[in-house]
Amino acid sequence: MLTLYRQEIFKLSKRKGPLMAMGILAVFNLLVAIVIKLNGKMFNAVGVFAANFLSTWLVALLLIGATATIVTSEFEYNTIKNIIYQAGSRQRVLVSKWLATLTYMVFLYAYMLVVNLLLKLILFNTNFSLSDKDGKFFIYQEWLYSAWGGFVKMLLVSSLVFLIAVLMKKSSAAIMVGTLTYLAVTLIGNVMEILLRKWEFLKWNPLNFTNYGNQLVDPTFANITHLTTNQLLWGSLAYTAVFLALGMWVFANKEV
């Protein structure tokens, strides 16, 4: 298993995607930071920094693409049979790919935090301190909560993308489903609130659990989700495990 994991990390490091993702993320955050700096009266610098310079959506799209291609590329290049033969187990192949994806997720979120911290120190060091209060939380707490909430959401979304990638064998289909899911989560907040008022049981649907990050920063979101913050966290992890298990089952029984 360790050998397979190292191979997946090696293949991932040799792709252009991770370097391009780092460059795109750094440039985007820099541009946002400069706009905020030059228009300080129009924008709330503290809020934008705490939201990681509005880059969590970009990180999500980059990770959706990476998650889809790490599986589907083996089907598209007809290398999946060789990998399974070398590994001796389909389960090992899929677990190694998931662990490599998880490692990349941790790396990209850590990279985002480092870039944003550097931008704060360079451009906004005299504007506010990380230890200042911003409403209920310290700024550094709100900043880290935002990143952690985005990470937990991406665990859930990535596990769904993993499942779709195994089912469809096409990166485009998996990327499309993952992107639409992420956008749906962002757009249907008001609709979800109306639906939950009428049908309480809908609070257990997976889309509702992607609000964990929102509720972590703003506890009043409980009025929309109808769940506690801890329930959202554990529910997100549970759905992640379910989607991964389904992907494992499909892959184990699918003709390759």
TrEMBL record:
Keyword match Transmembrane: yes
Key word Membrane present: yes
Superkingdom of origin: Bacteria
Transmembrane segments: 20-36, 56-77, 98-123, 143-167, 174-196, 232-252
Keyword terms of this UniProt record: Membrane, Transmembrane, Transmembrane helix
Pfam family of the protein (one): ABC2_membrane_4
Protein name as catalogued: ABC transporter permease protein
Species name: Ligilactobacillus agilis
Taxon lineage: Bacteria, Bacillati, Bacillota, Bacilli, Lactobacillales
